[in-house]
Structure formats: structure tokens, C-alpha cells
Amino acid sequence: MPVLTDSAAVAGFCSRLRHETYVTVDTEFVSERTYWPQLCLLQIAGGAEAAIVDTLAGEIDLQPVFDLMADPSVLKVFHAGRQDLEILLKLAGDLPRPVFDTQIAAMACGLGEQAGYARIVEEITGAVVDKGARFIDWSRRPLDERALAYALADVTHLRDVYDHLRETLERSGRYPWIEERMAVLSDCGTFRADAGDAWKRIRRKPAKPRDLAVLREVAAWRERLARKRNVPRKRIVQDEALVAIAMQRPASTEALAKIRLVPRGVTKGSWGGDIVACVARAMALEKSELPRPDAAGEKAERLPEPLGDLVRALINARCRELGIAPGLIASADEIRRFAGDSADAGPLASGWRYELLGRDIEGLRAGRLALLVENGALKLLPV
Fold it and tell me: Got the DSSP string for 96-159?
């Protein structure tokens, strides 16, 4: 099994890959014990050569890998690569470019919404991926042959998947349909989350704007602390405790200590004072500064039910006809907003999305088009 554990071997391998048109890339990491995922293995394959870089092997120098990732003449192919890209951005200070994500491409090639890697590999190549290896502790050494074979197969199968999807996209003329999504993955801003937005990830948020303001403050405090200490957020305070703090709004550490979901250790020392200070800042905000209940994107504009039914039927029928996943065109919220207000400059308002669906949604909304069933298929009829 080609496992590289010294800097010279990594440098030679990456130097040879600089002559490739594309390379396939995957990572294995653990994230349960830290805020930032710990990179354990980095797998890369070219046309005739593939290897695993053991990133935990002593003082191994990964700069040749970062140089390869930055080489504009070599396309970097990932599958569902968002987490891989985020890890590489953290380590290298920049993103690989250019990139191609086979999960996004599969959405344009009739393989479904967010199709899993094992399913795509089996459908395209006939190979069966060992799913049981997903539960391996990749930080453990030594890794057995089964684990290493699983890791390497991720990038060797990916070569065949990429070749098939690229040819399908080029033959169908759908390559432009995915370019915008690939550009998002090449933008560092996509991965640099603001601590002030951490509250939006919390489920079952309170409804009152003042409570949301408190939640926003304490979630941002937890996010910054977790990053600084490199520990999971839940090691600081659980989500449920943050929500309880937001709804109780404790004005002192004594009041904080009375909240059942807040661990005793949190109320002692500086953490308790920090949380109370967060509450005080939120309570001092003017009403106009409070977050709206829908600011986290949870309550998209609701369409009148008949129009909503028509739009959903049209989208599902058109996507089945074209063999694409609805999520490739727009999110559910973007579709609802566009259908509710045709002046919304969202993704459906221009380009290929407008040609495929946007214009017809406008027609339905304005009453210029109607839907009917003909020979078991949904058809649009001018009114």
C-alpha cells in the first residue's frame, strides 16, 4: 500500500502529479475531540499513480501538497468536498483551485440530490465501496490494511466517476449548470463563518426577538472560545443550555447558577461573568437592533397554497423530465421567494435557471400559463 511518511517521498510524488490534467483528492480526519478537524490522512491520485500521505507522521512537510493544490493547471476533483476544502484552507491558508465536486456534478447528471459516494461509484463503475470502514478512528496508528485500502479506493474510484460525469456534462451541454456552484467552493469567504452567526445553527430557538438577541451574544461567545481552545462547542456549553440562558436572561452569576441546564462548572470563574455580560449587552440593545425571528432563514415567505402546489408540481415535473436534482436549480426558500415576488433577483431570475424554470414560474404566477396532465405527463398550457 503506497503510504508516504517522509517529506522527500511527498515532494517527489507531488512533483510527478504536477504534470497531470487533474488529480482526485480526499481526506480522512477526526472531529469529535476538537473544534478544528484533525487531518489524519490525505489521499491523492493521478492518472497512473495514487498514494496516501500520512499527515500524522512526525515532522512531515505538506508544502508540496499545498503547492499542488494551488497549481492552476491541475484540476482538483473532490466528492462532497466542502469539509475537505475547509481543512485544506485552515492548513494552507488558501483553497485548492480549480476544483470540481462530483456530488454537484451528479445532481446535473440524473443521479439525485446529494447522492452518496458509494452509490455513485456502484452505479457508474459497478464497484462496491466498503461502507463499514467509515467508523475507523483515523488518528490511531498503525492503521490496518483494510483501512488503508478503503482510504485509497476513495480517490482511485473517483477517477472513473469524474471521467464519466465530465463526459456526460459535456455531451449534454450542462457543464455551465455547475460552474457557479464550483465557483462558490473556490471562494474563501464560503468557509469563513462569522461567530456572530453561530446562533443560526441552533435548533429550537426561542421566538421573542429579545431572547434571540441574548442567544446571538452567548452563541458568539461560545464560538470564539471553542475556536481559541480548539474544543467542540458542546464541551463549552450545550445548545439547550444556551437556549435556556436566552429565555431566562440571567442578570447575575447567581441567577445563571439557578438555570438547570447550565453545568455548575460554567457558572464559576470567568465563564459565568462572560455569559452575564453577554446577556447585559443583548438587554441594552435598541428594539431596532434585535434580530428578527426569521433572520436565521427558518421562515421563508409562504406562497398562497394553490400557487405553491402548482410551482412544486412544475418543478418536480421539469426536473424529472431533465433528469436533474431540484436542489441544483435553487433552494426551497429561493424558489418560494421568487414565485412569491418575481422582482426578487435570486438565482431563478436570470441565466439558464430562468430559461428552465424562472420564466414558467412567472407565467404561472401571472396566470398566463396553466398545468394539465396529458398522457400521464404534466404539460404547460398558455392561457
Answer: -SSEEEHHHHHHTTTS-TT--HHHHHHHHH-----GGGGG--TTSSSPPHHHHHHHHHHHHHHH
